[in-house]
Design a protein that fits this description.
Blueprint: H1 5-41, H2 49-73, H3 75-95, H4 99-127, H5 133-161, H6 166-169, H7 171-185, H8 199-222, H9 227-248, H10 263-293, H11 298-327, H12 329-347, H13 356-381, H14 390-419, E1 422-425, E2 428-431, H15 434-454, E3 467-469, E4 475-477
Antiparallel strand pairs: 1-2, 3-4
Helix pairs in contact: 1-4, 1-5, 1-7, 2-3, 2-4, 2-8, 2-14, 3-4, 3-7, 4-14, 5-11, 5-13, 8-9, 8-14, 10-11, 10-12, 10-13, 10-14, 10-15, 11-12, 11-13, 12-13, 12-15, 14-15
Length: about 500
């Protein structure tokens, strides 16, 4: 099998899905354990946030370098090395004896996670030709859908019945299996010439993304008016603006901003940014809504969120097999984002006396709608990207998706805090759902903005990814008699 082309597609898919699953689940599973960590390490709840902030900042800093490293040393080597880093750091997190140690190991974990996702995506898109990427995109939704929903369930079980250390230990067997499979079956892909290392680009992008991510993460907690939040947010934005100026002048920049001359790549990135803001913001907010708004346990909250993952999986099959070959990406993206906005709007009607099955049904509908966004966006985004530019394109795609998710969580949390998640009645805090309902409306706003951006996508640009299936699974490209797709300059 190792010598056959199909085996490489399977090998890359298995390793990448395992790596992506670890990275995505790690965020949601750790959030459940934060109160327990505060008690065990004898620190206030706000002090434990360094465990989350350190990981997110490290992730943001390391992502920009991933494309260059993959092209310079080979994507297989970088991918497997990043899995080793993430897995070992996870084991060390489980062994941590102080909050300082845990935060340090989380930073190391973020380095591995920041390299894993872009490099793995580069290998995947280089292995799958454009006509087959819609199928690969459906596979990628396995970790994207299940990991955020499974994290709170496992986290609740570990914290309740075992110990918080298993929140990190759970990554070890996954990492070992992914690493072993990769060592046995992955082949090194042909290296691309990355050019000289862009040190100024790394410093500006790492510092800019890191500071901005810190500000976005701390703003809802400390308040947007606090000095450190204002300073880091403004400094991050200034550095990123400076980065744009510097990178546009370089022949081989670390962040290839010239890729934005490709209108399909630009539009797809905008859709993914808004989709990530809505999707990750919703998952974060629904978990809080279930636990603090409706009084469910962490375990019941996770189980009640799970219909979203089921909806994504079913929706992915519908999109892949039936809708995308017939309609292309544009109409699916628009319809999916409108469906998410509608689901979020209906969530504002869920209250203390509403059946949980209504909320679960809405999450199932939003999962199906999200599949109509993520599957076509990931398939179409790289349709006109050359093999040589794939590494840098994957880097930017993942960086803006990470930033979009952070902005979504920050905005929704700020709305929740601003309206008020709790009100005092006779000296006792009581549930106040208006804040959650306002946050759901904010998420619907992100989705509607994404639908507007989706309208700029032109199906003819993604013609190479649109195939119409004939009998017995034979496939032929869907003829599109329009102007040719705009080339990357």
């Amino acid at each position: 099998m190792p010598g056959r082309e199909i085996s490489q597609k399977v090998a890359i898919g298995v390793v990448y899905v395992g790596a992506l699953f670890m990275t995505i689940m790690d965020t949601t599973i750790v959030n459940v354990a934060l109160p327990t960590l505060g008690r065990d390490f004898h620190v206030r709840s706000t002090g434990v946030d360094t465990v989350v902030i350190g990981f997110l900042v490290s992730l943001a800093v390391s992502i920009p370098a991933s494309g260059w490293l993959g092209d310079r040393f080979g994507p297989k080597r970088v991918l497997l090395t990043s899995i080793v880093i993430f897995t070992c750091a996870s084991a060390l997190c489980g062994q941590a004896s102080s909050l300082g140690e845990l935060t340090l190991f989380r930073v190391v974990q973020g380095v591995g996670g920041g390299l894993m996702t872009p490099v793995g995506m580069t290998m995947l898109w280089r292995a799958f030709p454009p006509a087959e990427r819609i199928r690969a995109s459906a596979v990628l939704l396995v970790p994207t859908a299940f990991a955020p929903a499974l994290g709170p369930v496992l986290g609740g079980l570990f914290v309740t019945d075992l110990t918080w250390r298993w929140v990190f230990y759970v990554n070890v067997p996954i990492g070992i299996v992914a690493l072993g499979f990769g060592l046995l079956f992955l082949h090194e892909q042909e290296k691309e010439d990355p050019g000289p290392f862009d040190l100024s680009g790394l410093i500006l992008s790492g510092a800019g993304f890191g500071l901005l991510m810190y500000g976005l993460s701390e703003g809802p907690v400390k308040g947007w008016h606090t000095a450190d939040v204002i300073t880091t947010s403004v400094a991050g934005a200034v550095l990123l603006a400076w980065l744009v100026r510097v990178e546009l002048r370089r022949a081989q920049p670390l962040i290839a901003l010239r890729l934005f001359r490709d209108r399909l790549f630009t539009s797809a990135n905008g859709v993914m940014f808004m989709g990530a803001a809505a999707f990750l913001g919703v998952l974060y907010m629904v978990a809080l809504f279930y636990q603090y708004g409706l009084g469910l346990t962490a375990l019941n909250s996770g189980l009640s969120t799970f219909p979203e993952a089921v909806g994504v999986m079913i929706g992915a099959q519908i999109v892949t097999r039936i809708l995308y070959p017939s309609f292309g990406p544009r109409r699916l993206m628009i319809g999916g984002l409108i469906g998410i906005a509608a689901g979020m709007g209906c969530m504002t009607l869920v209250g203390d006396h509403t059946s949980l099955w209504i909320a679960r049904a809405l999450l199932f509908e939003m999962g199906i709608s999200m599949a109509h966004v993520f599957v076509p966006t990931q398939a179409a985004a790289f349709a006109t990207i050359t093999q040589a530019d794939m590494g840098r394109a994957s880097t930017f795609f993942n960086a803006q998706r990470q930033l979009g998710g952070a902005i979504g969580v920050a905005v929704l949390t700020t709305v929740l805090s601003g309206v008020g998640a709790a009100a005092a009645t006779v000296g006792h805090p009581t549930t106040h759902l208006s804040g959650f309902h306002a946050a759901f409306l904010a998420a619907a706003g992100f989705a509607l903005l994404g639908a507007i951006v989706s309208a700029t996508v032109k199906d003819e640009d993604a013609a190479s990814t649109i195939v119409r299936r004939r009998k017995r699974d034979a496939a032929a490209p869907l003829p599109v008699e329009t102007e040719p797709a705009q080339a990357v300059v």
